[in-house]
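Troubleshooting log. The previous structure file for this entry was overwritten by mistake, so regenerating from the original sequence record. Sequence copied from the archived sheet and checked twice against the printout by T.R.
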Amino acid sequence: MAWLSIRLSVPAARVDALCDTLFDAGAQSVTVGDAGDVPLFEPGPGETPLWPHALLDALFPLEVDIGAVRARLRAEIGDAITQAGLDVGFVEDVDWSQTWRDHATRYCFGGRLWVVPRDAETPDDDAVVLRIDPGLAFGTGGHATTAMCLDWLAQHDLAGYSVIDFGAGSGILGIAALLLGAVDVNAVDHDPQARLATLANATYNGIGLQQLRVMAPDALPTITHDLVLANILAGPLMTLAPVLTGLIRPGGVLVMSGMLVHQLDAVLAHYPGFRFAAAQVRDSWVMVEGTRTGG
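Regenerated output below.
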């Protein structure tokens, strides 16, 4: 099946209204992208960033009256549609939920932990295997920050560890910790979709709810743990420093990632009660391990 694609560049202030117009005109989907190659950096709290000019790409059934769609858009933005341009083309239908498998990669971390698609063959009978498919929550092992944390987990003896996975995303780090010997994990994320993804991925990997508890940040019990994993961004790492510190027992370990090289010193300054090992760097991203020294 093919679709008719209608694309136009519009000011950010008009995105919501024009998306509504396109849907009212019969669009089956509308995606919003960058029309001017403008980078978006880490937003501040409460901010929802958008490019100054956005590219709208709407998919319509082939039988749509393109003249009527043009008329609806012209009524919404007037002569600006002429300056913005309106590109019309055809797009072949693709089952994207399956197409990703053509490019899926199997990763090995620390020489013993494999992360593979759900239906992939077991790489080695003696391997620790974590099966996960891409979804709406971050984390399948391919990003540098996740990969460094998985390497760290696979290279350490986690037997008996109590773990916090703060900013769990897909739950990949907490699930990996359990598969590698940890006794219990609290997976924490503010996003309900991430919590659902964590539960689904844990179930698929044979992890029970008595081992993995999934919760929002405000539901965290006020007890200390052996290991806290925090693969989040630099801003939250600094803001949450008192919270993360309070979750770690003296002598316990904090593994942080999600910051860039130039942000490392600023982040570490918020953790005076830790002794940090040399940072690891991959693709400009940093992971650092700290041991809590304070009481």
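The longest strand covers residues 248-260. Archived copy saved in two places this time.
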